[in-house]
Amino acid sequence: MRHFRQLDHPTLDRLFLHRPQPFGHGDLRERLATALGATLYVPATRPDLTATIVRRAVEGVTSMVLDLEDAVADDEVEDGFRNAIDTLDALAARGPAPLMLFVRVRTPDGIDRIVSGLGAGAGVLTGFVLPKFTSHTGSDYLRAVTAASLRLGRRLYAMPVMESSEIVHRETRDDELRAVSAILAEHRDSVLAVRIGATDMCSTFGIRRDRDLTIYDVRVVVDVIAAVVNYLGRTDGTGFVITGPVWEYFADHERMFRPLLRSTPFEEHDAVLFRQQLVSRDLDGLLREIALDRANGIQGKTVIHPSHVAAVHALSAVTHEEYHDATDILDRDTGGVQASGYGNKMNERRPHRTWAEQTLLRASVFGVTRKGVTFVDLLTALVER
User: Fold this and answer.
1) What is the pLDDT at residue 43?
2) How many Å apart are CA 180 and CA 379, to the nearest integer?
3) Model confidence over 40-77: pLDDT tens digits?
4) Which residues are CB-neighbours of 228 under 8 A, at least 6 positions away?
5) Cα dihedral value 80, 304, 202, 32, nearest 10
6) Cβ(83)–Cβ(44) below 8 Å
7) What angle do CA 58, 59, 64 make, to 5 degrees?
8) CATH of the domain at 128
9) 310: phi > 0 → left, psi -120 to 50 → alpha, else beta; which?
10) Which of 309, 129, 233 lies closest to 225 in space, CA to CA?
11) How many CA within 13 A on the CB side of residue 237?
């Protein structure tokens, strides 16, 4: 598997100083978690599921979730189980897994149901998404994943979703996150990443955020996100990769506020029409939210529409400036400070070291762009291919 594999070699050479490198199930957990990128959710009941997964992989999707929870009606769950199992077996018959594949179950027993029903499909399953993960359900979920791994003789990963009322409500949040953190620590090697379920968080207050706003404009939810990152996203060896919440919108609408994309970067790249297309599909809000995800210690993102994938991946590539700063910071470990080679900031070797290490890890899977290449160039290449 490799990011930007849908681009031809001349385009890759034009855009990247260092191309994205392959990744796979055998990689270190931290690298595989970083490589998730845009994780596309699809209902497990979809009739053309196998063909859809193959098509999305060709288009550049690198992680997908077959959803048996909120995307499936209660009376269709059994059909979803059968379809998910049949799909995984059908994909295995085609060869190696084309992308990372997860199943989102409703309850811990759903994990055994999937694994016990699989034939060759066990070889293309990456793991499970664990919804409404709490201190009460978490241990059962993770024990089920461990048992499934032992049964198959290969590691399956878990991605718990932080979205429960115990985490949302202020009076129970700290105790709940401490308890969840302890449970995840016991199963650290099995936890690939922690996902944030902002839609369920909003529902606790009867909120549905508007497409003119990012999730960071919804104060009661952003407080929860900050707490999740604080407890579970630390870089001292106790934390995990935290992935960004879903962006729900993908169609044109009448706007109350101005678009969130500046015109200048597009004018400089002769892409004004392209900017208008992004705005018309509400992708300007998505791009803004991705940038805020990164600023708040979050990588990757849950997406529910294929058009969102390119935006997430374009903003995940490491820029020439970021790479230059990261390598300068890691050049020696004696501390100190010096001006960036770009002459626009100070690089402090000790406080910026963790950032630099994470940047180079991201560079290994998303690549490093050439000097002067921006997200506009990447996004244009991905959308117009």
Assistant:
1) 94
2) 37
3) 999 999 999 999 999 999 999 999 999 999 888 888 99
4) 162, 167, 177, 194, 196, 242
5) 90
6) yes
7) 85
8) 3.20.20.60
9) alpha
10) 233
11) 0
Range of the domain at 112: 22-316
User: How confident is the model over 274-294, as pLDDT tens digits?
Assistant: 444 554 455 778 888 999 999
What is the residue type of 90?
A
Q: Flag whether 322 is in a domain.
A: no
pLDDT at 181 over 90: yes
Q: Phi/psi zone of residue 37: left (φ > 0), alpha (ψ -120 to 50 degrees), beta?
A: left
Residue 364 counted as domain residue:
no
| Residue 235: other Cβ atoms inside 10 A | 12
Beta bridge partners of 302: 39
Residue whose C-alpha is closest to residue 38's, from 322, 317, 295: 317
Concatenated DSSP letters of 15-66 = HEEEPPPP--TTS-HHHHHHTT-EEEEEETT-TTHHHHHHHHHHHT--EEEE
What is the chain's length? Answer: 385
Decide if 363 is inside a domain. Answer: no
Task: Region of 347 please: left (phi>0), alpha (psi -120 to 50) or beta.
Answer: beta
Residue with tokens 């960071």: 216
Q: Is residue 256 part of a domain?
A: yes
Overall number of domains in the chain:
1
pLDDT at 123: 93
- Rounded to whole angstroms, the Cα distance separating 226 from 206 reads 20
